[in-house]
DNA sequence: TTGAAAATATTGAATATTCAACAATTGAAG
DNA sequence: CTTCAATTGTTGAATATTCAATATTTTCAA
């Protein structure tokens, strides 16, 4: 009467980690053509609305915690992809903006990312993809 | 005629990262009751079949790369949760085994993890959960 | 208005991860 | 058999992340 404990591969937490790892790896591979980590793509994408975004807001949006974001932004400022402006309405805040160079890079990265999405659509299917997205959104919602 | 680029929140890669982060955070919170990181739960769970698993096999199973696993196993050996045995059939390999202490801990961790799964089932729904799992498995399959 | 608490971002030290090189063993071709 | 390439795991240095502490500014209650 051995107890056949639930295998790890049946845990939602594990399946999510596994799928995330794989998809992220693929995306990483594409973006490496431009020598850019996934997080920087996210940052540029969020900033490419042209508006200023505070560090806190950005950290939430790109799934990084504050100190990690600060250091990554330091690098991106060195690369003149983004720049800091003190928020005039709340001087505790820093508003981040994308530079022209950042916009150019962002476009290239977007097309690489879109490439990947299309590749997934092909091998995984249109129906499954949109259904999966829907379920993920709803899971995220239900976790707040 | 501004181009409304796909928002990042619509990319599968982003949704997966977000969902994974959130679910992982919740699991982490539970496991912290025993002071154990998620990766160690995975390791113990895989080893709790009682069989020896090589480092390479284990690294794949628990989603860690080799050097990271080696160092985490070093810690777990210090804590006498697992132990190394040289594979007699292939002396390049090391077989990892779970200790009695590891088994005891593993059971506690499992019940914490099951707690979480039940919590998700409640707030997210039985139907959605199993459907999400099915889709994730199929996505992972299609990525090989 | 003042002073304490909260919010925001950064820093430096501690910790963890990754990359490249290495050592040991096995496999396999000649 | 012997040698060379491939496999497996570990190590140390370089890099990245995290935690706790800090500085600054704002908020708000007294």
UniProtKB/TrEMBL annotation, chains A, B:
GO molecular function: DNA binding; DNA-binding transcription factor activity
Superkingdom: Bacteria
Biological process, per Gene Ontology: response to stress
InterPro entries the record matches: HTH_MarR-typ, MarR/SlyA-like, WH-like_DNA-bd_sf, WH_DNA-bd_sf
The keyword DNA-binding appears for this protein: yes
Domain HTH marR-type: 9-141
Keyword Glycoprotein appears in the UniProt entry: no
Lineage of source species: Bacteria, Pseudomonadati, Pseudomonadota, Alphaproteobacteria, Hyphomicrobiales
Listed Gene3D superfamilies: Winged helix-like DNA-binding domain superfamily/Winged helix DNA-binding domain
Name of a matching Pfam family: MarR
Native organism: Bradyrhizobium canariense
Record protein name field: MarR family transcriptional regulator
Keywords assigned: DNA-binding, Transcription, Transcription regulation
SUPFAM superfamilies: Winged helix' DNA-binding domain
């Amino acid at each position: 009467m051995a107890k056949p404990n639930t295998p790890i591969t049946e845990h939602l937490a594990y399946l999510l980690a596994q799928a995330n790892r794989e998809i992220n790896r693929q995306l990483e591979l594409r973006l490496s053509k431009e020598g850019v980590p996934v997080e920087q793509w996210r940052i540029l994408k969020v900033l490419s609305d042209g508006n200023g975004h505070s560090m806190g807001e950005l950290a939430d949006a790109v799934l990084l915690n504050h100190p990690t974001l600060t250091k990554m932004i330091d690098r991106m400022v060195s690369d003149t992809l983004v720049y800091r402006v003190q928020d005039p309405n709340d001087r505790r805040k820093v508003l981040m903006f994308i530079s022209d160079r950042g916009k150019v890079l962002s476009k290239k990265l977007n097309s690489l990312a879109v490439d990947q999405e299309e590749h997934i659509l092909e091998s995984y299917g249109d129906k499954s993809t949109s259904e999966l997205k829907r379920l993920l959104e709803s899971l995220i919602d239900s976790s707040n």
